[in-house]
Write a structure and sequence with these properties.
two-stranded antiparallel ribbon, TPR_rpt, alpha+beta, globular, Leucine-rich Repeat Variant, 33 helices, Doubled CXXCH domain-containing protein, about 10% strand, about 700 residues
């Protein structure tokens, strides 16, 4: 940053003290906000002490086995409304400690230590989410977005890190890319290539707002951009961190090709409500791209100063940059007699609080729909303020104000809700959403992904069209839809994407074809398959510290019948995360394929001692015992799996079949009926019920 200040003093001044500037700092007297004056914090039977030793900031607390140790709080993490501390562990690991400092003023409830995740920690912690586990590992899950040009430098042989960075915080090059050629350009513009001359030596040009103004259309009265937005450099540069995504490669790529290195999440259950409102912490991008404003060409810096990160104007002022006050800042629009509840963000950007004290606003900028709270169970902005009133009360008021129920831009809530809950009897609604170009691409990609539950001929044509769509996120969503299809059908649909211009698409396409041996592929396609598989393997090795990548490697080796390598990869995944359910299930299946069911039973039994609430492990153990002809013994884990996940219709189907095989047909039918009450459209359960009722006892 020092090299930037000389020419960009104004931008540097706005940046100084911003959340980007203070994203991560060494722990010093001036950077540490928390009280380390020998303060004791107690929670769930664990006593944590914050103290000083020889000038260092120290934490004495319990590990996941209940043993107490002193840990060095080497770095601060964040600054407001809370500050975390990175505790040093062996092997170059730093863990984001789950007891944080509430940096808000005391009168707002701040200036205190508090437990970030009370449901997981305490004297009987959920060890899969304990602060010492991989979910709180800074090197793997946090560091990339809090420092500049971070290199994880994970060594699989020693299972250790030597993580480095260029700048400890989110500095200039995090957004603008490498600055060396820009400095060269500033010294002598003729000393750089003609290709970079127009970009002043920078990798990225943030020119979306250049020569663009927002003006009112005289016919509609709505704001319009004076020139169309043709690039997404700024939005994608921000989304590299401000999105829910998986990082596939560490290398930096131009922001216009965000999907080259990142796999963006869709509107997945658990991350978003069925109508697209934020549920888990999803970091803005996935909600913003659902909005009508995004579709109209609004970009991040229309509302936010990119250097200070502050709003362009206070309060409603940021919206009134484009929306006329006499139309929108009036009770005729917001129906509130006082300023309370009449702020634009109160209705169109309701906040959800994460990490205990940190409210994040939903950027989908939607119209409040309390009627969907009644029908779909999603939250609504009205009741986030009027918590003493019912959703019916809110829905009645909206109906009274408008004379009808306003629909808004997002038209996919019912479709996603039904698909998630298994109540769709056909794929028609998902296909309609997939092909509806007026709806956000992220919603259409979600619909494509959900079509994997219908591996039927009538969906293939639309899925093929999605696989050829110009938008890579839609192609990626459609790739999920082919998972249940036969190998030959998958090959025919997916093989063209092995040469896709986007690297992540090529990798995901290769992942869908792992079970197809290269020697069974047409000779003219073999090279493209091998190249895509090489990229797939490179992506897994680039993330060797991620247990999911080790799982992917194991599946690859297993598909090639390299069982020893597969077993090693599964074991490495469990070394990285001893609570990784999928690795236990897959390793037990490898043992099955190797005629080593006793090893599988031992593995699953030990895993259940560690993770007794893991439904997948109970189910896997039940299947193993069925194979061993231990039907009565298998009933216990199969029943337990369904008890833990009553919505899982596969568990229900297998349990019903087992009950019928054990001579308990009436009980089997009762289990099926319970499932059909939850998911009336489930064809598999419906067919099984008919078979049981029509067959002789």
């Amino acid at each position: 940053m020092e090299n930037c200040v000389g020419c960009h003093a104004e931008q540097a001044e706005r940046f100084t003290g911003s959340h980007h500037d203070l994203a991560m700092q060494e722990s010093t007297e001036s950077t540490v906000l928390g009280d380390f004056d020998d303060v004791v914090f107690e929670f769930g039977g664990v006593t944590t002490r914050f103290f000083r030793r020889d000038g260092d900031f120290m934490v004495n607390t319990a590990d996941d086995q209940g043993q107490y140790h002193d840990y060095l709080a080497r770095y601060t993490f964040g600054v407001f409304p809370l500050q975390q501390y990175l505790l040093a562990l062996p092997g170059g690991r730093y863990q984001a400690f789950s007891v944080a400092w509430d940096a808000r003023p005391k009168e707002e409830g701040g200036q205190r230590w508090f437990q970030l995740n009370p449901e997981f920690n305490g004297d009987e912690p959920d060890k899969a989410f304990h602060w010492t586990g991989r979910n709180f590992n800074w090197n793997l899950t946090c560091a990339e977005c809090h420092s500049t040009n971070l290199q994880r430098n994970y060594d699989p042989a020693s299972n250790s890190y030597d993580t480095q960075w260029d700048d400890i915080d989110v500095a200039c090059e995090s957004c603008h890319g490498p600055g060396s050629l820009h400095l060269k350009w500033a010294a002598d513009p003729q000393d750089i290539s003609p290709e970079l001359l127009g970009k002043k030596g920078l990798t990225l040009n943030f020119d979306e707002r250049r020569e663009a103004i927002w003006q009112h259309n005289p016919q509609t009265g709505q704001p319009e951009r004076s020139v169309a937005k043709t690039t997404e450099t700024e939005i994608q540069a921000c989304a590299a961190c401000h999105s829910r995504r998986a990082q596939i490669f560490d290398d930096n790529t131009p922001a216009q090709q965000l999907v080259e290195s990142f796999l963006l999440s869709n509107l997945d259950q658990g991350l978003y409500h069925a109508d697209g409102q934020i549920q888990d912490e999803v970091f803005v991008h996935g909600s913003f791209v659902q909005s009508k404003m995004y579709a109209a060409g609004v970009t991040c810096s229309d509302c936010h100063d990119p250097h200070s990160l502050e709003l362009r104007a206070p309060g409603n002022g940021v919206c009134l940059q484009c929306h006329a006050a006499d139309q929108y800042q009036t009770p005729k629009h917001h129906f509130h007699a006082t300023s309370a509840g009449s702020q634009c963000v109160d209705c169109h950007m309701p906040a959800t609080t994460y990490m205990g004290v940190d409210p994040r606003r939903d950027h989908s900028l939607r119209i409040p729909r309390p009627d969907q709270t009644l029908s779909l169970g999603v939250p609504n902005a009205c009741n986030s303020c009027h918590q003493d009133q019912s959703a019916q009360w809110a829905a009645d008021h909206v109906q009274q104000w408008y004379g009808h129920v306003p629909q808004g831009h997002q038209q996919f809530a019912q479709t996603l809700h039904d698909a998630r809950n298994g109540s769709q009897q056909s794929p028609d609604d998902l296909l309609a959403l997939l092909t509806n170009q007026s709806q956000p691409v992220i919603a259409r990609a979600t619909a494509a992904s959900l079509l994997q539950s219908w591996p039927q001929p009538e969906v293939i044509g639309d899925v093929v069209m999605a696989l050829r769509d110009p938008d890579p996120q839609l192609r990626l969503g459609a790739l999920n839809a082919v998972a249940q299809l036969s190998p030959i059908t998958r090959w025919q649909m997916v093989s063209p994407l092995l040469s896709d211009p986007v690297r992540t698409v090529r990798i995901e396409a290769a992942g869908q074809l792992l079970d197809i041996p290269p020697d069974q592929v047409p000779a003219d396609k073999r090279a493209s398959l091998e190249q895509a598989l090489d990229e797939y393997l490179a992506a897994q090795h680039a993330n060797a510290d991620n247990p999911s990548a080790q799982l992917n490697l194991a599946v690859y080796y297993q598909s090639r019948n390299q069982l020893a390598l597969a077993e090693q990869a599964y074991e490495r995944a469990l070394l990285l995360d001893p609570y990784f359910e999928a690795a236990y299930v897959n390793l037990a299946d490898l043992y099955r394929a190797s005629l080593r069911d006793p090893d599988g039973e031992r593995l699953l039994t030990e895993a259940l001692e560690r993770i007794p609430q893991a439904a997948a492990l109970h189910f896997s153990l039940g299947l193993l015992q069925v194979r061993q002809k231990q039907l009565q013994q298998a009933m216990v884990p199969l029943a337990r799996a369904l008890e833990l996940q009553p919505d899982n219709q596969r568990y229900r189907y297998v349990f019903a079949v087992a009950l019928n095989s054990a001579g308990q047909r009436e009980k089997a039918i009762a289990v099926i009926n319970q499932g059909l009450a939850l998911a009336p459209g489930n064809q598999q359960l419906t067919t099984l019920k008919a078979q049981l009722q029509s067959s002789p006892e």
